[in-house]
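hi support,

uploading two proteins for the ticket. first:
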Amino acid sequence: MDSKTENKIFGFERNIFYTGLTSFFTDTSTKMLYSVMPLFLLSIGASKTTIALIEGIAESTASLVKVISGSWSDKIRRNKPFMVIGYGVTAVVTPLYAFVRVPFQVLALRFTERIGKGLRAAPRDSLISTSVTKLDAGKNFGFHKAMDNSGAILGPLIAFILLSAFQISYQNIFLLATIPAVIGVLTIVLFIKEPKNPEKPKEQVKFRLKSLPTRYYLFLAIIFVFTLGNSADAFLLIKTTETGIQQAYIPFVYMIFNVVSVLCAIPVGKLSDRVGRGKLITLGFVIYAVVYFLFGRYNNIHIFLFLFILYGLYSALVDVSQKAMISDIVARDLKGTAYGIYHAVLGITLLPASLIAGQLYDKVNSNAPFYFGATMALCAAVLMGIFTLVNRKN
């Protein structure tokens, strides 16, 4: 057995494995919160538009940090410090939710926590990308997605058990969610190492927008169109509560889509390595359009359970393939910057997406935001199909 094989864990590079483990613990924590946060906000007097505003502002205003952290990590050729600080912010903020009394306080905490995510997201994806080869980028991003969503399964499951079996308050759930968040930070500190860079450039080249290929920006434009109709998952949970289901079961329903996403993530990643990313992203957009249209058309818990299964498939298809496609398109020394801009586009677009959805929900009806999301997803699917065909010809 050669040393290269010995350094792997379950067939994955050590950095890939431990980055996945970090995301597992952190997502266990954040999804314990997220699966009950819409219910908690409604319980302290927040409207649907307020919930949308909190999600949108928290994501969008922190998005600039993602560009800065990605570009900065490229410049100093280090990713780990950004990950330690970013995941550390989440661990510090999490227990503070237990002391919230008004919706504005949630906004302040969500904003701070999203800054932490902004610091870590692009450097983390850059670390994954530079730790693997182009031929297996899909498989490794699939593994990370699977670990991320495994935490997203365990978090809602724990919240469901605590609410249904022990009738624990939302505040105590927030306090307990701190434990896995701290473990995630310790995993980075103790086990993750910076990838070795083959060589450092003799002089630092100043980044310009034209440094990234045109294909990358065309790809981002399509992501923008899709994300404009991709409002926060909180609206799916709120719509599900309107079927009459007991509130304690909402985290369990949210867990279903994460289970499917975990089961599909690695197979989807491997498939994207073989058949191409564009086809799978297009398919994911179409599935999303179907899910959102049916969420708007019906108000039945049995139909919604099936739709959460489809939503998990969409999540695996799109998230894994998008990140792997950026890894294919962008040169090694600009990956942090490219992932930073990508995450920023997602975050910035979430503000108008969530505000549109919130206004449609409050001012029109509960079906309108889902029809809007389905329409934007279909537009993005057509554009992605064209993008894939043109790239194949070139």
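and the second one:
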Amino acid sequence: MRRMFLFFSHTLTREQEEDARATLMVDEFVYLPAGLQGAWSAFDPGAGTIDGQLEALRRYVDENCGPEDVCLVHGDSGAVFSLVSHLRERGFKAYYSTTRRVFEGETMPEGTARNSHLFRHVRFREYE
């Protein structure tokens, strides 16, 4: 049984779940426990270091990930770099989701603009 641990701030889309099952042979998706999810989703941009928050996440990996498991890692650039390095040092595969972005813009009657970006999952790519 292969699990995908989600170091990720959102909920997976149906397309991402289907792709993970089909291409990475994932059977189960493991979201972070609430306290760790809060830490992963809210790194202080003004902090000089985030190593303290990352230590708990690295410990979680060491205590919970098995040899067949994979990890989806998205988020704060420095946190991603650190966690992916930790995962790779331990022989785990870390992935990110590639997306196709579609921009839509609309001029509102009062002269303001409303912009939206739609993201559609394309595939998982392993961190190299």
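thanks. also noticed: Residues 3-97 form one domain.
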